[in-house]
Amino acid sequence: MNMNDSKENMGKKEGAGVNINLIGNKCYRCGHEWLPYDKNSQPRVCPKCKSPYWDRPRKSEERK
Protein backbone atom coordinates (compact mmCIF):
# COMPACT_ATOMS: atom_id res chain seq x y z
CA MET A 1 0.00 0.00 0.00
CA ASN A 2 1.21 3.44 -0.83
CA MET A 3 1.75 5.88 2.04
CA ASN A 4 -0.20 8.55 0.12
CA ASP A 5 -3.44 6.54 0.15
CA SER A 6 -6.04 7.92 2.52
CA LYS A 7 -8.22 5.78 4.79
CA GLU A 8 -11.30 6.63 2.71
CA ASN A 9 -9.79 5.03 -0.39
CA MET A 10 -8.55 1.86 1.29
CA GLY A 11 -10.18 -1.19 -0.23
CA LYS A 12 -12.09 0.76 -2.88
CA LYS A 13 -11.54 0.09 -6.56
CA GLU A 14 -12.86 2.34 -9.27
CA GLY A 15 -15.54 0.74 -11.40
CA ALA A 16 -15.78 -2.38 -9.23
CA GLY A 17 -18.93 -3.57 -7.53
CA VAL A 18 -22.56 -2.54 -7.50
CA ASN A 19 -24.59 -0.86 -4.77
CA ILE A 20 -27.51 -3.04 -3.67
CA ASN A 21 -30.32 -2.02 -1.34
CA LEU A 22 -31.97 -4.92 0.47
CA ILE A 23 -35.19 -4.72 2.46
CA GLY A 24 -34.95 -6.56 5.73
CA ASN A 25 -36.32 -6.64 9.26
CA LYS A 26 -34.97 -5.35 12.56
CA CYS A 27 -36.09 -6.40 16.02
CA TYR A 28 -36.96 -3.53 18.38
CA ARG A 29 -36.23 -5.79 21.37
CA CYS A 30 -32.75 -7.23 20.69
CA GLY A 31 -31.63 -5.21 17.65
CA HIS A 32 -31.15 -8.30 15.43
CA GLU A 33 -31.35 -7.62 11.67
CA TRP A 34 -32.26 -10.29 9.12
CA LEU A 35 -33.52 -10.82 5.60
CA PRO A 36 -36.97 -12.43 5.33
CA TYR A 37 -37.40 -15.84 3.71
CA ASP A 38 -40.79 -14.88 2.29
CA LYS A 39 -41.08 -11.29 1.11
CA ASN A 40 -44.89 -11.43 1.03
CA SER A 41 -45.51 -12.21 4.71
CA GLN A 42 -44.28 -10.66 7.93
CA PRO A 43 -42.45 -12.94 10.40
CA ARG A 44 -44.28 -13.90 13.60
CA VAL A 45 -41.24 -13.76 15.90
CA CYS A 46 -37.65 -12.53 15.89
CA PRO A 47 -35.40 -15.45 14.88
CA LYS A 48 -32.84 -14.53 17.55
CA CYS A 49 -34.78 -13.63 20.72
CA LYS A 50 -38.10 -15.24 19.67
CA SER A 51 -40.07 -12.17 20.76
CA PRO A 52 -43.49 -11.83 19.10
CA TYR A 53 -43.23 -8.07 19.68
CA TRP A 54 -40.14 -7.62 17.48
CA ASP A 55 -41.93 -5.04 15.31
CA ARG A 56 -43.25 -2.88 18.17
CA PRO A 57 -41.16 -0.40 20.14
CA ARG A 58 -41.13 -0.80 23.91
CA LYS A 59 -43.54 1.40 25.83
CA SER A 60 -41.95 3.85 28.23
CA GLU A 61 -41.32 2.52 31.71
CA GLU A 62 -42.82 5.60 33.38
CA ARG A 63 -46.08 3.67 34.04
CA LYS A 64 -45.38 2.39 37.56
Give a short summary of the structure:
The chain has strands at residues 25-26, 33-34.
Q: What is the topology?
A:
Layout (H helix, E strand, L loop, with lengths): L24 E2 L6 E2 L30
| Mean pLDDT rating | 81
Strand content: 5-15%
- Amino- and carboxy-terminal Cα gap: 59 Å
Number of helices, where a helix is a run of at least 4 consecutive DSSP H or I residues: 0
Tally the beta strands.
2
Radius of gyration: 20 Å
> From the helix content, strand content and strand pairing, which structural class follows?
little secondary structure
What string, H for helix and E for strand, traces the elements in order? EE
Shape: elongated
Q: Note the main sheet.
A: 2 strands, antiparallel
Poorly predicted residue ranges: none
Percent range for helical residues?
A: under 10%
Biggest sheet: strands side by side, in what order? 1-2
Features:
little secondary structure, 64 residues, 2 strands, two-stranded antiparallel sheet, single chain
Provide structural commentary.
Helices cover 0% and strands 6% of the residues. The chain is mostly loops and 64 residues long. A hairpin with a 6-residue loop joins β1 and β2.
